[in-house]
Amino acid sequence: MNENQINTGLSLSEIKKIIIHDTNEPLVEIIENEKIKLLKEHKFLSPYLRKSANDLLIEASRNLPATYKFLIVTAYRPLWMQKILWRNRLIQMAKKYPFKMIFQYPKWKKMASRYTAPPGGSPHQFGGAVDLTIINAKGEKLDMGTTLTDFGERVSTHSNLITDKQKENRKILYDAMTKAGFVNYPLEWWHYSYGDRTWAAYTKQKECFYGRIESTD
How far apart are CA 130 and CA 54, in angstroms? Predict the structure, then answer.
């Protein structure tokens, strides 16, 4: 991966080139334990992952320092959930960039899709993606420099606009997840995936084994 890809991510067209051969591996529930906690009050938490991805999440949690735990914010998303999140992102971007929305609509919409995929295109709908952070023994979130709903250059995993301590905290998360086999989406420090198109593209494979899980809602 070159420096430009680290800062901006692979293009959507590159990711869409990945051929899907879905193994139809089932979704399983993410179970809390001494190293994994769920943000249960989050209305967009659907605590499920494909079985192999869930196994890797457990393995990744063991890579954390002794007093740290994963806090799972969101994982699998059914279609109805992705529709709401996409609408919320468009509202957020409209408030932030109203003139760009009016006069540069295609560019504005493309910018929005960098941070939340339109319904049908999110890796979260494949069942192998998870958004998470780290908490300490007191249940306090480590300072990662931004929240998980922010956007812009600061949320990029390797952003230079954050402090050294924030970079260190992100590295703890990055190392734990990537050592287990997950791939980070470089535009979002909190997003990791396994088995889907994003994972395949960043590991330079031509095929992936998780496809979109269809739902009727």
Answer: 10
Give the tokens for residue 108.
């504005």
pLDDT for res 149: 84
Confidence band, pLDDT 50/70/90 cuts, at residue 120: low
Q: Write the burial class of residue 193 (CB in 10 Å: 0-12 exposed, 13-18 middle, 19+ buried).
A: buried
In CATH terms, the fold of domain 3-76+125-208 is: Muramoyl-pentapeptide Carboxypeptidase; domain 2 (3.30.1380)
Q: What is the DSSP string of 59-110?
A: HHHTTS-TT-EEEEEE----HHHHHHHHHHHHHHHHHH-HHHHHHSHHHHHH
Q: Domain residues of the chain, as ranges?
A: 3-76+125-208
Let me know: does 195 contact 52? Beta carbons within 8 Å.
yes
Which among 89, 173, 175, 96 has a CA at the least distance from the CA of 134?
173
172 touches 60 (CB < 8 A): no
Strand partners, 207: 19
Whether 113 contacts 12, CB under 8 Å: yes
CA dihedral 172, 203, 72, 12 (to 10 degrees): 120
pLDDT (average), residues 85-91: 77
pTM of the predicted model as reported, rounded to 2 decimal places:
0.84
Measured CA to CA, the distance from residue 46 to residue 80 in angstroms comes to 12
Mean pLDDT taken over the chain: 88
